[in-house]
Design brief:
It is built from 13 helices and eight strands. It is an alpha/beta fold and 306 residues long.
């Protein structure tokens, strides 16, 4: 099992929805972002997750995003496709499509809005997995947004699924990573979710990270991962703190953090468009936040990657 899980170690940027100037999904811009991230040395991509604005895209748009990612980098890096929608039918459609396109794994948050019992959540996940029976399955635990927490009993139930290989853990307590690893007993991988605690999550046993700001500074996250793996904990902590300060600046904009990140990418020649309503685009006043983030990323790059 460990050999099977090796490909799920490392840094996996959450992939952003790329729009044309009219706000529609752009295949060419999607492929350009995918090729850009391939060149940054990351292990893989997490496609159509929350950072990819999945709840604001319809099923066909999500398929279009994945198709273009696979055309650009499929077979060259590990691709995890988030396929959850807020009903089982659409989720299964996305799962079947992802398997057909040859992704390495599919992932799913629990159903949101209605508070379902754990046996219903397990059925939802298992139904999705059944639509892609030859593809690995990863649970996406993000209780602060989904309103549902992955418990050990629910994880134990899901471990009965032979496709189940991991958890993307975006809860804030790093203790959860240790608990999920213990429950998996070496049979699953656990990804750290919150970007602000990647170093801590790795030290608590995460095998890698999936994060919404990774694509804005991928080489810094790759370096952070390497420092922890090499036992250079002090340097890793300093880099993590610098990354956190950059994220705080990103979150201080009036517009969405993702709109700011897309502007940073545009300045580097990667045009992803803006964000889809109701997410808020950048305002004129946000230019100073973009400038500050750009300078901080450049400074950290010079310090840690010289």
């Amino acid at each position: 099992m460990q050999d099977k899980l090796t490909k799920y170690k490392g840094i996996f940027p959450a992939f952003y929805a790329c729009y044309d100037d009219a706000g529609e999904i752009s295949g060419s811009r999607t492929q350009a972002l995918a090729r850009h991230l391939l060149a940054q040395g990351v292990q893989g991509l997490y496609v159509n997750g929350s950072s990819g604005e999945c709840i604001y895209l319809d099923v066909q748009e999500r398929m279009t995003v994945l198709e273009n990612v696979m055309e650009a980098v499929g077979g060259k890096m590990v691709i995890i496709a988030h396929v959850a929608a807020n009903n089982t039918r659409d989720s299964k459609t996305l799962a079947r499509h992802a398997q057909k396109r040859g992704v390495d794994a599919i992932a799913a948050i629990p159903p949101i809005f209605f508070r379902l019992p754990e046996h219903a959540i397990a059925r939802y996940w298992n139904d999705i997995s059944s639509a892609a029976p030859n593809t690995d399955f990863i649970i996406y635990n993000i209780p602060q947004l989904a309103g549902v927490s992955l418990t050990i009993p629910l994880l134990n139930e899901m471990l009965k699924n032979p496709c189940m290989v991991g958890v993307k853990n975006s809860s804030m307590p790093v203790q959860d990573i240790q608990m999920f690893n213990d429950a998996g007993n070496g049979a699953i991988t656990v990804f750290n979710g919150p970007d602000e605690q990647l170093a801590g999550g790795l030290l608590m046993g995460a095998n890698g990270g999936i994060g919404g700001t990774y694509a804005s500074m991928p080489r810094l996250y790759v370096r952070l991962y390497e420092l922890v793996q090499d036992g250079q904990v002090g340097c890793a902590a300093r880099l993590q703190n610098d990354i956190c300060r950059i994220i705080y600046q990103m979150c201080a904009a009036q517009g969405s953090m993702y709109a700011l990140i897309k502007e940073l990418l545009r300045r580097r020649g990667i045009n992803c468009g803006s964000v889809r309503a109701p997410l808020v685009p950048l305002s004129a006043q946000d230019k100073q936040q973009v400038d500050a983030c750009e300078k901080m990323i450049e400074a950290a790059t010079s310090e840690y990657l010289a």
